[in-house]
Automatic annotation (TrEMBL):
It comes from Candidatus Auribacter fodinae. It comes from the Bacteria. Residues 143-226 form the 1-deoxy-D-xylulose 5-phosphate reductoisomerase C-terminal domain. This is 1-deoxy-D-xylulose 5-phosphate reductoisomerase. The keyword Plastid does not apply. 1-deoxy-D-xylulose 5-phosphate binds at K122, S148, E149, S173, H196, S209, N214, K215, E218. InterPro entries: DXP_reductoisomerase, DXP_reductoisomerase_C, DXP_reductoisomerase_N, DXPR_C, DXPR_C_sf, NAD(P)-bd_dom_sf. One of its GO terms (molecular function) is 1-deoxy-D-xylulose-5-phosphate reductoisomerase activity. Catalyzes the NADPH-dependent rearrangement and reduction of 1-deoxy-D-xylulose-5-phosphate (DXP) to 2-C-methyl-D-erythritol 4-phosphate (MEP). Residues 4-129 form the 1-deoxy-D-xylulose 5-phosphate reductoisomerase N-terminal domain. It is an enzyme of class 1 (oxidoreductase). Keywords: Isomerase, Isoprene biosynthesis, Magnesium, Manganese, Metal-binding, NADP, Oxidoreductase. Its cofactor is Mg(2+); Mn(2+). Belongs to the DXR family.
Length: 385
């Protein structure tokens, strides 16, 4: 039996993780759960999985949560509670499925306690990849990629010598606006941007997929997970989302990983790693009805966020943290209908231009860069209105 905790259990990845747990009865014990504010779902999950510990970040819900649960469950609140869940001594694996930089400290806490991480929360590697990967190495912790592309690469790279890798090729669905002409980008609404053609996901990553910032963040994530230089990581649009990524080897061979586009597959791979298990969730790819697999170059003019991410990681130091925070903040403004879709890359680029880079930042300095970038976004916004 493997003991797991889930940071962000009420989100899209959290719920899919519990779906895998349900499919393999008796294989997993849920030790801890956490949510930001979705109290109703969190209570339901606690009653079903009877974790040892649970936390709600929004403290106004603490009493409701406490009253709804049996005494045996330890109930925490606030960000401190996240650390308790992440680093519970019974955990074998903590699934980092919070969205955004809010997942940084609890994930560090788990790593420092030697607990393996199932990593969905890509923003924390974008923000602090150098520190997180060093810390994981020092504590002998595995960072197991949940993100479908990285899980695909992880599978393709299994047992391969790093020297034989020529290039990592991340596939991208292209999002909802792949075929929208550039002149219509000005009219994109929030509802249209949330309508992803292939994946059902949380709001922030859905917008990131629509701008293709998601793929940019994933380039940075792959750079840190697999220690491959960014210039050896490319992005290719593959609208069918059957191939989840590929590795190009020096001898001219390519390995690609495929499955039906559903996050339960990479999650199951991580939960059982290093074993491969027969799955009750198995779904066949009907290749004949898929018919053909298509590929194209990403259009940088329509999706400048992808290029901004490359630029940020090439500069390094505090810049990726600034990119990430500016993106989180502009996406929030867009979701609140305060700015247009096309304003997202313009504001992020403006904030990156203004940023005074700090070399070799520690975690606190990265956090300060994050706070600075959020303020800078809001200053840009104030000037716009
Ligand atoms: P989501 O919005 O559906 O869920 C986020 C979860 O985090 C929720 O449980 C929420 O309560 C919690 N949360 C939000 N803000 C928080 C905060 N400030 N403090 C503590 N908890 C907070 O998001 P998601 O789609 O599940 O994505 C989670 C992460 O996984 C993201 O980093 C995303 O990029 C990554 N990811 C998601 C998918 C997917 O298919 N959804 C695929 C690959 C990677
Ligand atoms: Mg992905």
């Amino acid at each position: 039996m493997k003991n797991i905790s889930i940071l962000g259990s009420t989100g899209s990845i959290g719920v899919s993780t519990l779906k895998v747990v349900d499919a393999f009865s008796g294989e997993f014990r849920v030790i801890g759960l956490s949510a930001h504010s979705n109290i109703d779902l969190l209570i339901k999950q606690c009653i079903k999985y009877k974790p040892k510990i649970v936390t709600i970040v929004d403290e106004t819900h603490y009493q409701t949560l406490k009253n709804a649960l049996p005494h045996e469950i330890e109930v925490c609140a606030g960000t401190g509670g996240l650390n308790e869940v992440a680093a519970h001594p019974d955990n074998d694996l903590t699934i980092a499925a919070i969205v955004g930089s809010a997942g940084l400290y609890p994930t560090i806490e788990a790593i420092e306690c030697g607990i393996d991480i199932g990593l969905a929360n890509k923003e924390i590697l974008v923000m602090a990849g150098s520190i997180i990967t060093k810390l994981a190495k020092k504590n002998n912790v595995s960072l197991l990629p949940v993100d479908s592309e990285h899980n695909a690469l992880f599978q393709c790279l299994n047992g391969e010598d790093k020297k034989s890798v020529r290039r990592l090729m991340l596939t991208a669905s292209g999002g909802p606006f792949l075929n929208l002409p550039a002149e219509d980008f000005n009219k994109i609404t929030v509802a249209q941007a949330l309508e992803h053609p292939k994946w059902s996901m949380g709001k922030k990553i859905s917008i990131d997929s629509a701008t293709m910032m998601n793929k940019g963040l994933e380039v940075i994530e792959a750079h840190w997970l697999f220690s491959v230089p960014v210039d050896d990581i490319s992005v290719i649009v593959h609208p069918e989302s059957i191939i989840h990524s590929m590795v190009e080897f020096v001898d001219g061979s390519y390995l690609a990983q495929m499955n039906v586009p559903d996050m339960v597959f990479p999650i199951q791979h991580v939960l059982f790693h290093p074993e491969r298990r027969q799955s009750p969730l198995f779904r066949e790819i009907d290749f004949c009805s898929v018919g053909s697999l298509n590929f194209q170059k990403p259009d940088i003019n329509k999706f400048p966020c992808l290029e901004l991410a490359y630029e940020a990681v090439r500069i390094g130091h505090t810049m990726p943290a600034v990119l990430n925070a500016a993106n989180e903040e502009t996406v929030m403004l867009f979701l609140n209908d305060a700015i247009k879709f096309v304003d997202i890359p313009c504001i992020i680029s403006g904030v990156m231009d203004q940023h005074k880079i700090l070399l070799n930042p520690n975690i606190e300095e990265l956090k300060q860069a994050d706070v600075w970038a959020r303020q800078a976004v809001n200053e840009h916004y104030t000037k716009m209105v």
